[in-house]
Write the structure tokens for this entry.
Amino acid sequence: MPLPGEVRVLSDPEAVALDAARWLADRSASDRPFRIAVSGGATPRLLYETLAAAPFSEGIAWARWHLFFADERDVPPDDARSNYRLVHDTLVSRVPMPAGQVHRMEANRPDLGAAATEYAQLLESECGRPPRLDVILLGLGTDGHTASLFPGSPALDVADAWVARSRAPQPPFDRLTLTLPVLDRAAHVGFIVTGASKAAALRAVSDGSVPAARVKPHRGEVVWFIDEDATRPRDAVR
Ligand code: 6PG
């Protein structure tokens, strides 16, 4: 299936998590600070748990990691639907990553516009202007969204801000999301996509018709880590 980037088809979600963990360990192996933005949802849980276990837990220099979010939902950080909570519980709390280097998106603030502006300023101070992240990990929704860039969302066309507010078609409705200008400046983008429910969305990406197809780093690589089930079509894009 022609996707925009390198495509790695693995046998199952466990093999995807292992391959993506190795890829991340390689990308973070240097003496420099490693700046990464991660996604939520159900799919990356296995990857985060894999990173938090041996051999990765011991082999990665966690003190150099600076962790940001690709998007966040309008829920408190201890809510089960919070992307921060997922990453905290499965990874951050299990490895020696300095707490001050984990930067939650505060999408549950009453003034979402101010929260977006402040996160954009944080990105500039930590990752340069314009911000260039070493790695951005993304997922794929069944409608072809990625981060919180949903089909038809005005956030998709934001060209002059690094972070935007967005509305999801299902609750939690209010979101904060990185914008395409930041995604397109990353050095490496990894999409983690598993399960037959994603097959139609992957086809829509290869047709170029959904938001995830618009991620095209100017000077960076894109790798699609997908399992065999995701290559076997069952449903149509919803
Ligand atoms: C979010 C995500 C989002 C996610 C996709 C896939 O906060 O919802 O960051 O972009 O990656 O919706 O989610 P699943 O892995 O749950 O299918």
